[in-house]
Amino acid sequence: MYELTKKEAKLIELLLQKDSIITYAEIEEKLWEGEYMSLNALRLMIKNLRKKLPEGVLKNIQGIGYKL
To answer: Residue-wise pLDDT tens for the chain (68 aa)?
Structure first.
């Protein structure tokens, strides 16, 4: 069992609610709450989250965002 950070848990919640692609802009708005989100910060969070999820669960939609 893995412990999720607040942002990881919030991202999973958003992905489950939406049931489609969540855009980079939505991720920045909901998780970073108005603060600047660097793409490196997002990539690192996604990389760490992927280690905690079964393989192939979190998919990147090139240039748009992510989906489960």
So the answer is: 779 999 999 999 999 998 889 999 999 999 998 899 999 999 999 999 999 999 999 999 999 999 99
Q: Which domain holds residue 24?
A: 6-67
3-state secondary structure of 35: coil
Residues shown for the chain: 68
pTM of the complete model: 0.87
Q: How far apart are CA 8 and CA 42, in angstroms?
A: 10
Output the domain CATH number for residue 53.
Answer: 1.10.10.10
